[in-house]
Each structure stands twice: as C-alpha cells, then as structure tokens.
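Worked example 3 (structure in, sequence out).
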C-alpha cells in the first residue's frame, strides 16, 4: 500500500520517502476514505498545549525538571475502560508524588496513553505450530488473534484509534483536572494497594509526610491551585504516517503545523532512519519530539538528528530517549552525550530502561528483569553525573494492574509466575508495585 493518500491537503516531503514499518493495506481506496474522514475530525489536543509541554521539556533540558513518561507498551481497544485508565493514571500520579517529594524536583508527567496503539515489529510474520501469519502490529493495524482474518490490516482501525484516543483523553482530562489528582488525594490513590504490598506501605509513609507538609502550608495560608489539579500530557510513537499526517493541523495562531493526535510524539528505534519518512514528518511538526536511540546510534547520527529536528537549538523541542540495555549503557552513552553537548545543542536526555533489556523466558514469555531495568537507570545516572549533564527523566512501560510480566521487584515475581497474569498486547510492563519501587529508587538516585 502507499502512505501517500491523494486526498490530503497537507502535502509534505515525507510522502516521497521510504516509510518503514507501515501496514500493507489490501484496499487502498478504503484507506483513502478513512484518511479523508480523519482529516476532518476535531483535534485531540490543542497546539497551545503542545507549546506548553515544549516549555516544560525545556526546563527538563536545562536541568530544572524531570520527565516521567509511562504507560502501556500497546494500548488495546478492549481496554478503554474507566478502571484501567484510572489505574494507569493512579500509578503515574503515585510515582510522580514519590519523585517530587523524595527527589524535590518538578515532574513533567506524560502518559504513553491515548494513542499508543501501533507497534513496530522485529519480524513481518509470526509462526505458530507451523502456521505463518502476518505479525500483530497493534490494534490500530490488525487484530492480535492468531487467525488469517484478524491479521489483515484494516484501515477502519485508524478510525477506532482516533475514537479510543478521544475517549481516553477525555477521561484523563476529567481525572487530572476534576479533583481526583488533587494532592489531598495522595492516600486515596493508594487505598486499594497499601495493605498487601511493601511498596504500597512505603508509599503510605511518604503520603503521610506529604499530608503533613500540606497541612503546614495550609496553616501558613498557602494553598496554591497547582495542588488541586495536575498538568498531564499524552504521547505515543508516531508510527503510522497516514494517521499522524491526517491528524496534523495548521495552528491559526502561528501558521505552523502541529500533530494534534498527542502533545508529544516520538520516533522509534526502528523508524529513525535519517533519510526516511518518519524523521521528515517529525521535522515538519511543531510538537515536542522524542527520538529513541539504541546501542548502535553513532554520535554523527545523533548530531544529524539534531540538525534535522532542532535546527534552531530550542530547548524542549528534542528529547533523546536512550534505550541501550543495562550491559551497554555505560559504554555507549558517554560519547553520545559528550558530542551532543559539545555541539551546543540542549536536548533533554531521558532513559528508557525497558527496550534494551527484553529476553525470552524458557516458558516462551517475553520478559524483563527488574534488576536490569534498575541497572540501566543507574548507568544512565552515572554517565550523566560523570559528564556533568542532566539525567532528564525516565520512559517506562507500565500498567496500573497487578500483572506478572517482568520478573523481580520488591514483591518479587519469579519466572514461574509469568503465566499468571501475562496480559500485555506486546512487550512486558512493570506492574504497579514494580513501578513504585522504581520511582523510589530513581528518587534516591536523583537526590544523590
Ligand atoms: O515495543 C517495542 C517493539 O514494538 C517491540 O519490542 C517489538 O517486539 P518484537 O521484537 O517481538 O517484534
Ligand atoms: C517500540 C518502542 O521502542 P523502541 O523504538 O525503542 O524499540 C516503544 O517504545 O514502544
């Protein structure tokens, strides 16, 4: 199929370039019709909010704030429910409270949420019991069921992605501004969790301290609006260019193009080719942009990415999300950071400790060791401390549910437990307890 639907008015350079990891739609006309509809739909976010996030990310790049970016590896259409969205949000709010209080740093909160429906894959096909079918590429592309019918890419799924994103974002906005995210709720976020988990109990002790601090401030007459709601932003991988491009709009204030499918989008490790369509697309939009950098990234590539995506060297515009693997971060990251810093660019450096640490357990489950995740974050902090640069944040795959997908953590999950609640649509996520453990440990590292 072509990602070059004629109906678009947003002609741009990316359309003539090779686009990796795009679905092979059997019906080009059906794709064109969906894209035309998407082009007419209202934006999911406002350009002004993207600018606000860019300003927040500029503080991260300058070393004045910390990014917490997290959520599902792959959102799924059948999981757009109040319970699941609330659980994810609660986990992120708890992590953020830990970081803000224990590390005393402003936290920029960004979900992998309300649009994270598309997955780049290592292989185009999957084989089970001798049967070969196209690989599952996320609910925005095809179905996860292992049947020939489910695996056919269906452009109607792009429309469902838009509606699922809109419903999710609507609830997220309700939760974050309607009282649920009020700091007075620090205990409520933990209520269902505290009794049976060590990290829950540790959190509860911290929540009591926050409560005391709030009471003290209130007694002093200070009760700022910032305590009653939370700035929360959405993000996802800008993978499907037909969708992302259909959701670009010209901002009436500035005349610039924004991808209004999310506040921030990132370009993945598999699609960041310098001469490819994804980088060209990202260079044309004004949103804050992330780029994943794996262990093979050369300093020259990083510098060219800066040239393409942040030619004005604007702090907050570009975030490098490194995902090297625990065994390589101390070796690969220093040169990249050194050369980028020497170039004068002020990017935000963020650690994704998940994607370089995946392995297959004997049971066949894809998993990650909590200790490897932690070790990669430690390596990230060590490198930045050594170079005098700012460890700007973490980017994590997590869920608010008590799944058993990653091994280890304080409430330890063993390899033999993986089958119990292995629910991810793609890669293994930290569960709530592991996420909180990570937040406490990161707070300690940041403070140190
Ligand atoms: O989340 C990232 C990728 O989509 C995922 O790691 C790819 O997994 P695969 O190697 O099973 O295709
Ligand atoms: C695919 C992802 O990561 P990466 O591009 O780093 O492999 C992801 O974050 O979902």
């Amino acid at each position: 199929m072509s990602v070059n639907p004629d109906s678009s008015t947003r002609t741009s350079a990316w359309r003539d370039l090779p686009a990796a990891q795009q679905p092979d739609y059997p019906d080009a006309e059906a794709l064109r019709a969906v894209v035309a509809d998407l082009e007419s739909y209202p934006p999911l976010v406002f350009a002004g909010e993207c600018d606000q996030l860019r300003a927040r990310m500029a503080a991260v790049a300058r070393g004045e704030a910390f990014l917490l970016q997290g959520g599902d590896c792959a959102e799924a259409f059948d999981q757009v429910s109040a319970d699941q969205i609330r659980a994810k949000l609660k986990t992120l709010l708890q992590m953020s409270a830990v970081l803000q209080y224990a590390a005393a740093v402003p936290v920029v909160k960004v979900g992998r949420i309300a649009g994270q429906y598309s997955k780049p894959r290592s292989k185009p096909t999957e084989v089970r019991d001798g049967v070969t079918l196209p690989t599952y590429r996320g609910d925005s592309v095809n179905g996860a069921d292992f049947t020939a019918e489910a695996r056919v890419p269906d452009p109607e799924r792009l429309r469902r992605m838009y509606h699922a994103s809109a419903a999710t974002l609507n609830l997220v906005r309700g939760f974050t501004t309607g009282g649920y995210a009020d700091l007075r709720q620090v205990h409520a976020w933990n209520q269902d969790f505290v009794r049976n988990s060590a990290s829950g109990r540790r959190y509860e002790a911290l929540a009591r301290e926050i409560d005391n601090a709030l009471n003290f401030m209130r007694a002093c007459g200070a009760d700022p609006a910032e305590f009653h709601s939370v700035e929360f932003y959405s993000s996802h991988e800008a993978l499907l260019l037909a969708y992302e491009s259909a959701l670009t709009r010209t901002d009436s204030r500035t005349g610039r193009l924004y991808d209004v499918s999310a506040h921030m989008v990132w370009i993945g490790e598999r699609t960041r080719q310098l001469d490819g369509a994804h980088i060209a697309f990202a260079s044309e939009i004004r949103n804050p942009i992330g780029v994943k950098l794996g262990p093979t990234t050369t300093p020259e590539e990083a510098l060219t990415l800066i040239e393409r995506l942040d030619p004005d060297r604007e702090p907050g515009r570009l975030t490098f999300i490194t995902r090297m693997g625990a065994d390589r971060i101390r070796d690969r990251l220093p040169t990249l950071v050194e050369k980028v810093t020497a170039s004068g660019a002020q990017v935000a450096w963020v650690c994704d400790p998940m994607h370089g640490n995946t392995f297959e357990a004997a049971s066949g489950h894809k998993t990650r060791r909590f200790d490897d995740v932690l070790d990669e974050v430690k390596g990230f902090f060590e490198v930045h401390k050594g170079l005098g640069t700012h460890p700007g944040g973490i980017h994590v795959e997590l869920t608010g549910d008590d799944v058993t997908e990653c091994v280890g953590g304080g409430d330890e999950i063993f390899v033999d437990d993986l089958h119990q609640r292995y629910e991810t649509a793609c890669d293994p996520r930290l569960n709530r307890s592991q996420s909180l453990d990570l937040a406490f440990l990161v707070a300690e590292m940041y403070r140190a």
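Notes: Residues 13-181+229-447 form a domain with the TIM Barrel fold (CATH 3.20.20.70). The mean pLDDT is 93.
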